[in-house]
Amino acid sequence: MLAQCPVHKDFHPLSADFLADPYPVFASLREEGPVVYAPKIGMYVVSRYADVVRVIEDRDTYSSANATSPFMPVCAEAQAILTSGFPRKPTFTNCDPPRHPRMRNAASRCLTPKRWAKTQPAIEACAEALVDALAAKPFSDIMADLAFPLPALAGFSVIGFPQGDTELLKGWCGRRVALTYGDLDPAGQVQAAHDLVAFFDYCRDFVERRRREPADDLTSDLLQLAAEKPDLLEVDDIVSMVYSISLAGHETTTAAILDGLQALLPNRPHWNALCADPSLIPGAVEEMLRINCPTQGIRRITTCDTEIDGVPIPKGSTMFLLLASANKDAETFADPDVFDPKRPNAREHLAFGRAWHLCLGAPLARIELQLVFEHLTRKTPRMSLVEDQQFHFPGNVLIRAPERLLVHPNGA
Fold it and tell me: What's the predicted TM-score (pTM) here?
């Protein structure tokens, strides 16, 4: 017999208390049941690792069509702006078969180890220069001095965007996250909607420029593929791909750098161990991604009546999958609140998604994170957090990281 779904009447992932520290809430949700209904957001919330994985892997029952829809209602004026000027087509995160495999196949043909290898020297040079610069300061804001510029250079250079446009693009990306995954007031929604249209127009113009003037970048590779296999990929698909990757290629890596340092620096034995033995860094990066997951949650919508561990879920229900909670599930990760750089199954974390929706940029993110921590542990081994600083987290349900992280690069 199917059980009654528990109702969690107070759960809201955009509340101030939740944004400040969601992990106690995650723990209570995992205890409460395999799924709870949250009336304040009108969604079924899944918090346990095995259940989250089950939903992600079952794309027939759980559609990703709503994955990038606004989390909160959008006012009529903002919606009109988006409807008239934002002709985005579903690509990676927000579509299902048969379109999704075709889009993913096209991108996979271009996002190859060869492409990552071409990008790595520029990333390493940038990481070294940034760390050298912050190491010369008495204190540093890691966001401004490292976590903002490095992933932007890496992600945008893969696409081919001009480096001089970084500030403009990062600003658009921030407002895109706020509109799609936050709770802006009507005026903020209207401004963000205009920004999204401008952002999409920028991507369309850039793809057209690359069609006329190819270069050694992902956009040109996609255009070449479209010319060779027009049944697989069209130019409009490429515009939407570039728009999608322009956010995914850097925002979560920025968050992972901040989250990783916030987890490591108070834990001096582990930080000192990385400084003494750089071979521990790859494992530590996976554990950082697990214990302070930069991607908090994703959404799905049910295509039929279904159930999770005996709890009924009606057709057309919105599911909110808490990746960050799943990464702390003791059924999968022993002593889940303990940072363990030698954890044997740390790489099973869900920070990069899973299965059909495993992040195509995960190899690039791992390259960046390993380089960052190699340079930091070698050049700033005495780095410490500035004491008594207040951490503030942006109001969205997708990406969680402190907006600033103040450190003493050479110790207090």
Answer: 0.94
